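Hey,

The postdoc asked me to send both predictions to you directly instead of through the lab channel. I've kept everything plain text so nothing gets mangled by the mail client. Protein one:
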Amino acid sequence: MSSLTKEEYEIRKLFCKEIETLSRSELEEIYRILRRENGEFSENSNGIFFDVGSLPASVFEALCKFVEFCKSNAKDLEERNKIINEMVIKPEH
């Protein structure tokens, strides 16, 4: 992999922050994407590890698409829960 531009580095740095918020099942899907896309990773008793900076662009793009999907789902769920809570608090007669 060629060296990253400053912009690419910042995007990948932000990605690292975003995956910290994922659930266990979402993190397991990150692992499956890495395997499917032939991304390099290591595994030991502490978990699965990969170098975001050395991932090929195609693998990183697949991971980013999944993280965006997770964020969108979380936002939709939050909005649905808000609507449900408002209905419970203020039932219509």
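Protein two:
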Amino acid sequence: MASIRTKWVKLQLKAVREQASRLREERESLVKTYEQQLTLLEERRKQLAQECPHDNMLYGLYNQCADCGEWF
């Protein structure tokens, strides 16, 4: 009886480890995708800020044109 329980526990442990590995890989993939999207958004924000016809930016976490009120 103990050997059946031991085998069952080992199988459960193996399944949990495999799931943890898959979840780690998924998390790493999501972080990488998030970082790529963040980089693209930052580049686009900078591009839009350069396209603003005014040269009166208020700088902070995001840039805002003091003349037209647009956020970049």
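Summary for protein two, as requested: The mean pLDDT is 86.

Thanks,
C.
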